[in-house]
Design a protein that fits this description.
284 residues, alpha/beta, Rossmann fold, Elongation Factor Tu (Ef-tu), domain 3, 2 domains, 7-stranded mixed β-sheet, 6 helices, 21% helix, elongated
Amino acid sequence: MKLKQLYIRLIADYGAAGDLAFSEVEERLHANLQSFQAEQFESGTFMNYHIMTTPVRPLNAVENAFVTAQLAVNTPLGENYLVYNNVAPRKDNLAERKENAGEPFIYLRLKNGAQVVIVNSSVSATLLKPHAEEIRHVHVDNDKTQFRSRDNYPRILGHIARGDYSCLGDDASADVPDEFPENVVVYNDGYGNLKTSIKVSTVEAVKGQRLTVEINGRKQVVAAADGIFSVKDGEFCIAKGSSGWPMPNGERLDFVEIVKRGNSAYAEFAKPPAGLSIDLRNEE
């Protein structure tokens, strides 16, 4: 008996992990994977799979893009890793939607072997694009239900897990935006640190100086530092953080963090959502 491992990362904006919507989608994924597991067992392979859930904030493509890329681009699990992602704000068309139609479902195979199926909403797949060997449309209904990730999409995961790519269509690379917004919040972690898309080079150029940061109508004086612990407890700093990944050209994309050491920058800036702009300037 051979062993096959498969790790499914479910990333979605349903609410907290364990929320009803997460539970419903997980059950549909299990239903599609269990039949494959039985097929594998009959052929002499035990397919051991795991479903792991990661919530992101509702309807926020910027946060979704960052979280998905941080996990998928950095995963050490390679071809055993499959991301099932759903964030669908339906902002591509603000008119009335016929039969709950939304942004289309696409497939990406990354250079590290990881595979991603994701709703192509706004910039959700933008950070993945440079790391993709292929990006393709998926043959699946993108309408007829309010809850597509429960009712329509789980069978696609079953196909991909089996290595059955008959559900894939034409190249979708041109449909994924190239540009990701700069100088915005991209995520707040459990400590209240704000991960941002400010360029590391911007901070490096003013290292050692004190700057004024304005987010969400709130201003704070922060120190441009080597790291987030390079200030006294209770002080603000801005520095390269712990998130980022190597780029195909050999460079790195790292994310700058705004931190209040020992406290929550997220709270101090009135809980800014991902996508909110950041004004950074020399202290006057």
